[in-house]
Design brief:
This protein is an all-alpha fold. It has one domain. It has two helices and no strands. The radius of gyration is 11 Å and the shape is globular. The termini are far apart.
Length: 53
């Protein structure tokens, strides 16, 4: 069974609650990370320490 959609949606919800960034920026960063595309808005530099784990 492929759990990727659940991990993706859980991370989206977590970052939307813990970080003060627009939802579309979070969605773009997660999509880029899971797809290993390499594109970024530079959002990961602004993440809280607990979010970097």
């Amino acid at each position: 069974m492929n759990n990727r959609p659940f991990v993706y949606s859980d991370n989206c919800i977590y970052f939307n609650i813990t970080e003060e960034s627009p939802f579309l920026v979070i969605l773009f960063e997660l999509s880029s990370a899971f797809g290993t595309v390499g594109l970024s808005f530079g959002f990961s530099n602004l993440l809280d320490r607990s979010s970097l784990l």
